[in-house]
Here is the input.
Amino acid sequence: MSPVDPFVPGRQPAGRAAAPGRLAYLQSFANTFWDLDAGGVDQWADVAGYRAWLLRLGFGAGGTAEREREQAVEIREALRTLARRNHDDVAVIGAVPELAALDRAAREIPVALRFDPAPRHEALGDGHAAAVGLVLGVLAEAMRDGSWRRMKACPGPHCGWVFHDASRNHSSQWCSMQICGNRVKGRRFRTRQSEVVGQ
Here is the structure.
C-alpha cells in the first residue's frame, strides 16, 4: 500500500467534493501551486516547501534537491495544462509538449504494476521518485479508463484550481460557481453594460 492509499486531498474551494479514489492524489499534486490554508502560496516555492510536502504525505525527503523540485513543478504544470484542455472534452492526441514532459519523467522514474488486490500502478523507491512515480502511474490509468477527462482546471482569472467534474454531462466549468463563476459572469456583464452605454 502506498502512502496515499487511501488519500485525503484536503479542503476544496467552496466545499466542492474532492476527486474520487486515487484521482484525489493527482488533484492534490496539481493544486500544490495554491495552498488554500496558507493564503494562496505555492507549496513548492522552494526545496524546503517541496520536502515538507513529501514528508507530510509519508514519502520521505532524503536526497531531494532543486532538480527534483523542478521536475515535480514541470509535471504539476503539465497536469494543470492537460486539465485545462479537458473543458472541451476532447482527447489529447498527437505531439503535445505536456505529454513530452510526462514521457521524460517516465523514462527516469520507475513504476511497477501490482495486481493484488486490484490491478494498479505503484511507485518504486522513496521520496521524490515515489511521489512522482505514483502521479505518472495513476495518470496513465486515468487516461486509459477515461476518468482523467473529468479533471478540469478552473478558467477563472487568478485561479486554475484542478477540480473533479462530477456532473452527468461533464458540464462543470468552475472550481466554484460562487467564487470564480460569479466573478467572471459579473465581469462580463459589466463589460457588456459599459459597451452599451458607450454606443
